[in-house]
Amino acid sequence: MKGSYLVQVGLAYGAAVASLAVLNRRTSAVANTSLINTLANAAGDHEDIGGNASNALSAIVAQLQQAGSITAPDSVEEALATLQQAVPDGPASTTDVAEAIAEAGLVPADILSFLNGYMDSELNSVQNTNPAPTQTIYPSKGPDDAPYSVPEQSLRAAIYIPETFGYGRNGKTPVLLVPGTAIPAGTTYHYSFSKLGDGAPVDVVWLNIPHASLSDAQVNAEYVAYAINYIAAQTNHSLAVLTWSQGALDTQWALKYWPSTRPAVQDFIAISPDFHGTVVGTLACPALTYLICTPSLFQQAWNATFIATLRSDGGDSAYVPTTTIFSAFDEIVQPQVGPDASAHLGDIRGVGVTNALVQDVCAGQPAAGFYTHEGVLYNPLAWALALDAIAHDGPGSVSRVDLKRVCAQVLAPQLGLGDVLGTEGLLLVAVAELLAYQPRNTGEPAIEGYAANGSRAGR
């Protein structure tokens, strides 16, 4: 299997950790700094992360500082071929993979400039000023909704609404973008689905979950549940929810335990989801004396109590029309092939589910090539099925998509070379966020009472 990105960070650091007390000296404040500075500061902290990790980070920083003199690929095809060659075969730490990508020229100066400033970017703000909802949705919208633990003002402030958003008055379908682990939504989707509205009748907003979704996924789900009902109330329109990675777990949890969200969601589109967790997740949270994992990484292991709770009582099936799109070459979520694919969701409620493995649907064609966990964000089939789902009742349908045209492409036509490079460069942001996160945990958070006690909301 190709080298793992995010999940391998914990392995690289865990082997070198001396104690949690040492780790707790690291600052959790990342504002008013830069990605390169964060990586450089961590590289100099041998005591916290160990010499090997420090050396790898130093090499990454050196490569990034030379980004302006490195020749980037000239085409999407060249970029994807270079990526496949750069990602190591077999186990590899995140820092090793990041170094290989930087050295291969896959992070040119213009892309790096954007990523370097992500910490202070308005696009990733969790302090947005949004008006009070037009109907009561807090402390609950429905009698079976789980209780919130986060104040309403904080839940609402995490929703980023672009100035161009039409609030349903322009006839466009609202689309809520929910991020994955370790990368804020504004940065996650900048080079991909934030552009979904270019030429399509959709209006995109996104949710910047605090701490880059590294904290308790149960709390992350509160932000999703609130955002769904808030956008539906403000637009007087049902919406599509498009997620990446952990965002699918957060959304499925929200749909399960806040059932008032279900009528508000016309489509759930999950890119590279891990509904079954991942067997690779154990590498991020190894059974070591000193653990340096984050809550939501613990919760995404295949044997996590969070995953078992989510999938219990019918949570392994869709609550709303759902389209999942995933790749066999996913370096973070495994397995992603066969009946046990982590992305697979059942349909016991008969709401409609499409589970699309790009290597199956487009077998032997360009769109079935080497797409990483993050690469599915620019895969042409993913875009085609997402737009098809939004345009029709029910999930995206392979039978409605022009597979001859779509599968012959290597990139969604709405995107370009810079979007491929920018999306793969997200790895650098993930490393920075994982370095900065505090406090570290020694196990996954306890299941909230509303879920542990078999709340009616779970039905």
TrEMBL record:
Record region (Disordered): 125-146
Gene Ontology terms describing biological process: antibiotic biosynthetic process; monocarboxylic acid biosynthetic process
Biased composition regions of type Polar residues, renumbered to the chain: 125-138
Highest taxon, organism lineage: Eukaryota
InterPro entries in the record: AB_hydrolase_fold, Stereospecific_Lipase
Protein name per Swiss-Prot or TrEMBL: Lipase
